[in-house]
Amino acid sequence: MAARAKVLVVDDEVYLAELVATALRFEGFATAVAHSGPVAWRSLRDDRPDLLVLDVMLGETSGFDLCRQMRDAGIDAPVVFLTARDAPGDRISGFVAGGDDYVTKPFSIEELVLRVLAVTRRLKGPGRPHVLRVADLVLDEAAHEVRRAGRRIQLTPTEFALLRLLMAHPGQVLTKAQILDRVWQYDFGGNASVVQTYVSYLRAKVDRVPDGPDPVPLIHTVNRVGYMMRAEPR
C-alpha cells in the first residue's frame, strides 16, 4: 500500500475516533472519520478507503453487519475491528464477518497502530509480485487476483495472504503456529482456531463451485499437524 494509504476510522465515540485518526496520520496515513454506520457506508462508496478501523457497536447498527455489507458489495478493504467484547465467540464472529484483525478496548494507541501496520504489510506480501500456480489454481500477486479453471475468486486480503502462503509451499505441511506467524505476523495468544476458520473460508471459495460440481480439493488437513496445498490425493 502507498505511504498515503487512506484509512477510515468508524466509531461513535467522537474523541476516540479522532485520537485514532490523529495517531494514524502521524504514521503517514490519510485518514477520515465516521461516527455512524450510514456515514461510514457513504464514505466507503465515495472515497474507497484502503483500510477501515471499525468499532463493533455503533448504536443503530453493528460493525459486523457493515463489514458483511462491504464484502457482499465486493469491497475487499481490510478491516481492523475495535470492541469492548473479548469473548472467543465474539472474536471469531469478527473474522466470520470478513474482518482481518480484532483489537479489544481498552487498548493502547501504539498497539492499534502496530496492528494496522501489520495488516498493510500483509497486503504487500513478501518479495516481488509473481504468479503462483497449483493445478488449475492461479494466484497473480501483481493483479491481486485468484482464478480457478478460469473462474475468478473473490478473496479478502487475509484470505489472499493465507492462500499465497499455502501455494508458495506446495506439498509442504504448515503448522497452525507457522501460519499465524507468517500471515498475521504476530501472536494471537495461541488462538489457532482463527487459522481453522480461515482455512474453511478458503475451501468454500477455492475447492467448491456454486451450483456446479466441486473440483478436485487442493487444500488438505494433516491431522494434528496443520494444512497443505496439494493437487493429487494421497
Automatic annotation (TrEMBL):
SMART domains assigned: REC, Trans_reg_C
Residues recorded with modification 4-aspartylphosphate: 55
BP-aspect Gene Ontology terms: regulation of DNA-templated transcription
Secretion signal span: none
Domain OmpR/PhoB-type: residue ranges: 129-231
Ranges in coiled-coil conformation: none
Record's keyword terms, sorted: DNA-binding, Phosphoprotein, Transcription, Transcription regulation, Two-component regulatory system
Alphabetized GO MF terms: phosphorelay response regulator activity; transcription cis-regulatory region binding
DNA-binding region: 129-231
GO cellular component, one term: cytosol
Domain named Response regulatory: residues: 6-120
Name of this protein: Response regulator
Organism, as annotated: Glycomyces albidus
